[in-house]
Design a protein that fits this description.
By secondary structure, the protein is α+β, with helices and mostly antiparallel strands. 35% of the residues lie in helices and 23% in strands. The protein has a 5-stranded mixed sheet, with helices on both faces. α3 runs antiparallel to α4.
Length: 190
């Protein structure tokens, strides 16, 4: 067990790699979006979405030092499920016909990383909650799992629940870490 927690998969990540994660964020998420927004505005074209779910998964993977599951079914990374929402929206969970029930069971055992972003990625918060803390959702969803199965089975965790119960791990403001304080301090050389 990691981090001495009673969960199958460990507690909140404690050694975040801000430097490498921010390099990815600036090169592939924040920087390109800001450039697109300028071009779209100049041509009076409606701007695109800010980031794909896979962008958040890679960003989280680098940040928490979790290489992922090599495209396997189940949770997004080896220890974490990654979710994102814009402007305090809810976090969507989608379950598939053949693997949905098993995925729900694994969600209870996994850590969950919740990105909340607004102002075209100028403000990003990352919170953590363990699936065991969200059992009320997952167990109810498992009980309500449809039979026969519809085209999609989607459920949501409200942003307010995550904000109230999640652990704030990081805040980015204009592409720079503003929380935690320790991440903002330059490294000292011995």
């Amino acid at each position: 067990m990691r981090n001495n927690t009673p969960y199958k998969i460990g507690g909140p990540p404690t050694e975040l790699d801000f430097e490498k994660a921010l390099m990815f964020f600036h090169a592939y998420m924040f920087g390109p979006l800001q450039g697109k927004l300028r071009l779209y505005a100049a041509r009076e074209v409606r701007p695109p979405g800010v980031a794909m779910s896979s962008d958040w998964e890679v960003f989280a993977s680098i940040l928490v030092r979790d290489v992922g599951r090599k495209l396997a079914a189940g949770i997004d990374l080896s220890e974490y499920e990654v979710k994102s929402a814009q402007d305090g929206g809810s976090y969507e969970y989608q379950y598939h016909r053949n693997t949905g029930k098993e995925k729900l069971k694994s969600d209870i055992q996994a850590g969950h990383l919740f990105f909340d972003h607004r102002e075209n990625l100028r403000h990003v918060d990352l919170r953590y909650a363990h699936g065991n803390a969200m059992k009320e959702f997952f167990e109810r969803w498992l009980e309500e799992y449809p039979d026969p199965y519809p085209q999609r089975y989607r459920r949501n965790i409200p942003f307010q629940w995550v904000k109230k119960n999640g652990i704030l791990l990081m805040t980015l403001t204009d592409g720079e870490v503003t929380y935690p304080e320790t991440a903002k301090k330059p490294a000292t050389r011995s």
